[in-house]
Structures are given as structure tokens and as C-alpha cells.
Design a protein that fits this description.
The complex is a heterodimer of chains A (110) and B (244). Chain A is α+β, with helices and mostly antiparallel strands. Chain A has a single domain (10-109), classed as Winged helix-like DNA-binding domain superfamily/Winged helix DNA-binding domain (Arc Repressor Mutant, subunit A). Helices cover 59% and strands 17% of the residues of chain A. Chain A is built from four helices and three strands; from the N terminus they run αβααββα. A three-stranded antiparallel β-sheet of chain A has the order 1-3-2. In chain A, a hairpin with a 2-residue loop joins strand 2 (60-67) and strand 3. The radius of gyration of chain A is 18 Å and the shape is elongated. Chain B is mostly helical. Chain B has one domain (37-234). In chain B, strands 1-2 form a two-stranded antiparallel sheet. In chain B, a hairpin with a 2-residue loop joins strand 1 and strand 2 (69-72). The radius of gyration of chain B is 22 Å and the shape is elongated. The chains are: A alpha+beta (110), B mainly alpha (244). At the A-B interface, helix 1, strand 1, helix 2, strand 3 and helix 4 of A face helix 1 and helix 3 of B.
């Protein structure tokens, strides 16, 4: 087992839609289902499945309620979600750095 | 909203670029800059009749009377009271606006730091003003009737403390926090220009016997705030959330 950054990637987080959900929830503190659906350009069903995965992993909290007569679903990042996002971003940056170093080395050898 | 949104590939560069784009979209949706500027402009405009018509209450005993003449060396406590209460109410209204906007747009705004700093600065302004009344940085002449206050030497430290204790500058300092909360570079640039103008203007002494001599001190910042509010309203994002 090496300490290559790909080993640190969490399959739950290292998925484009779920990473997007975590990034939005991190910036917004609390974000509504409709905003996520519009911003990520997903169907309600698809978004719902990703939210369920994140909720089961305890990375987000989902709160359902009403505002007037409109049903509202609010998503909040948990402390574990914040940590997972931070780790994922760090791994992505490390990956990019290693790829760039790998690309630069053969060029220097030429 | 049709931006890059969710990344279309799972490569690290694409994922990071998408996270940055989503972050930017959230920041745009969180902004409501026009409202605080409008509220603060209204507060500044309402100060005009307060300055002109509110009686001078000599709460701190700083006035001297002689042969029908009365000289007061400190700003009116009525004005200080007005600014303290008005600014606190303004920040409460601004907090309410952002909470309502968050619900409407479906995305929260961490407005608390701005409101807390704004209220704290308003309280600090009141405390510093009262402290300055008893510990003036500008030397008080023994005979206030014989000295034109305009001719008193004012050092840079006194100018800075007096300037930062002024409500107009306090508004600008809190706006710097709002620029940070909204990650809004346009607001940061606007606030720095506003702060520079009001600090320079505040250091200018108006020689006038008119009872409206204070007007430029209030009209210029109010006009700047109104213009800023209009400009930010024109470019405000349209990010209403559709029903689920």
C-alpha cells in the first residue's frame, strides 16, 4: 500500500454530483433542494438518490418542512461532511500536483 | 442557472474547476448588497432633520454660557443617541432581509458576522464618543468664547480616532465585513472609495454660520450610498428557486 493520493479518495465524496452538493452546502451553510437541483442541473429523483447516499454516510443532514404551503427540503453539511470535503479537495490538489510533476519530468529529460 | 455546474468529468482538474464554479454561483446567489446600502442611505438622510431640529441636550456638561452666548465643545448627545439606535435598528432590518432572501432563493447567507460587527461598531462608536467627551484628544481652550475652534491644531492620531468614531466611517468599516461575507470584490472596491471620500470630507472644516452647515457631511455619504445601492440593484442576481 503506497501513500498515493488516490488511496485517500473516498468513493462517497469522489463523485462529481456529490462533491458538488458538499461544495454548495459548505458555502451556503444551509441549502434548499430546489437550489441544488437547478444549480447542478439534475432531476429531482437523481438528486434525491445522491442526497440519500450522503445522508447515510452522515455527511449531510436533511430537514423537511413547509414554508407556507410549499414543501421545502433543507440540506446542511455535518462536521464529518466538512472534514470529508476538506480531505477530498486536498487529495485533488495533490493529484494535480503529482500529475504536473510527472509531466514536467520527461520534458526535462528530453 | 446554466453555468458549468456539476463537473462533466471526474478528473481532478475538472472536479476542482467545478467546485470553484459552484462556489462562485453560491456567492452570487447570496448577495443582496443593494438593500444594506439603501437602508444606510435612509438612516443618513433621516439624520438631517435630527441634526437641524433636535435640541442639544447637555448631558455631559460640556456647554459654557456667557452673556446670552452658548458654546458647546462636543457634538450633540442627541445626534449620538440617534446614530446608535438607528444603526442598531438598521442592522436588525438588514439581518431580516438576508434571512428572508435566503428562504426565497434557497441558499443560506452567513450574514451574522456583518450584523454582529455592525452592532458592535455602533456600540463602540457611542462608547468612544462619550470617552472623548471626557478625554478630548483635541485640546480644549480655557476660554471657548475667545478661540475659534477651527484654529485648534489637530494631530493625525486625533483626526484618525475622531474619524473612526464617526457614524459615517463606522458604516464603511462594517461594509468591509459585508464585502468579505459576500466575497464581493465590487463591494470591497466601492467601500474603499466611499471610506476615502468620507474620511477626506470629514477632515474638511466648513466655515459657516448657517444652521445647515452640516449638510455636506451627511448629503455626500447619503448620495454615495444611494448611488451604490442603485448600481448593485441593477446588477443583482436573479436566482429565485423554482418550486420543487
Amino acid at each position: 500500500m503506497t501513500d498515493h493520493p488516490t488511496n485517500g479518495l473516498d468513493d462517497v465524496v469522489h463523485q462529481r454530483v456529490r462533491l458538488g452538493i458538499l461544495a454548495i452546502a459548505h458555502q451556503a451553510r444551509q441549502v434548499e433542494f430546489g437550489f441544488l437541483r437547478t444549480t447542478l442541473q439534475l432531476t429531482a429523483g437523481n438528486l434525491g438518490q445522491h442526497l440519500t447516499v450522503l445522508e447515510k454516510a452522515e455527511l449531510i443532514q436533511i430537514e423537511k418542512g413547509y414554508e407556507g404551503k410549499r414543501p421545502r427540503t433543507w440540506v446542511t453539511l455535518t462536521a464529518a461532511g466538512r472534514a470529508a470535503l476538506r480531505v477530498e479537495i486536498a487529495h485533488l490538489k495533490q493529484l494535480i500536483q503529482e500529475v504536473e510533476q510527472g509531466e514536467a519530468a520527461p520534458a526535462a529529460d528530453r | 442557472m446554466t453555468h458549468e455546474s456539476a463537473p462533466q468529468a471526474d478528473g481532478p482538474r475538472e472536479l476542482l474547476a467545478a467546485v470553484r464554479d459552484l462556489t462562485r454561483q453560491v456567492h452570487v446567489a447570496q448577495r443582496g448588497t443593494w438593500f444594506p446600502l439603501l437602508v444606510l442611505a435612509v438612516v443618513t438622510l433621516v439624520a438631517i432633520p435630527v441634526y437641524r431640529y433636535a435640541p442639544y441636550l447637555d448631558l455631559f456638561g460640556t456647554c459654557r454660557s456667557r452673556q446670552g452666548e452658548r458654546v458647546c465643545m462636543e457634538p450633540s448627545p442627541t445626534q449620538l443617541g440617534y446614530w446608535t439606535v438607528a444603526l442598531v435598528l438598521a442592522y436588525v432590518a438588514i439581518a431580516g432581509f438576508y434571512v428572508k432572501q435566503s428562504r426565497r432563493r434557497g441558499v443560506g447567507t452567513p450574514i451574522r458576522p456583518y450584523v454582529v460587527v455592525g452592532v458592535a461598531l455602533a456600540a463602540l462608536m457611542a462608547a468612544v464618543s462619550i470617552w472623548l467627551t471626557y478625554h478630548p484628544l483635541v485640546p480644549v481652550p480655557a476660554d471657548p468664547f475667545s478661540v475659534d475652534p477651527v484654529e485648534i491644531e489637530v494631530g493625525p492620531a486625533a483626526w484618525l480616532v475622531n474619524g473612526l468614531a464617526s457614524p459615517i466611517a463606522v458604516i464603511a468599516l462594517a461594509l468591509l465585513v459585508l464585502a468579505w461575507v459576500e466575497r464581493n470584490r465590487a463591494l470591497l472596491a466601492y467601500t474603499l472609495v466611499y471610506l476615502a471620500i468620507v474620511l477626506v470630507q470629514g477632515s474638511q472644516v466648513i466655515h459657516s454660520t448657517s444652521r445647515w452647515y452640516f449638510l455636506p457631511y451627511l448629503l455626500v455619504p447619503a448620495a454615495l450610498l444611494l448611488l451604490g445601492s442603485a448600481a448593485f440593484a441593477l446588477f443583482k442576481p436573479s436566482t429565485e428557486v423554482p418550486a420543487r
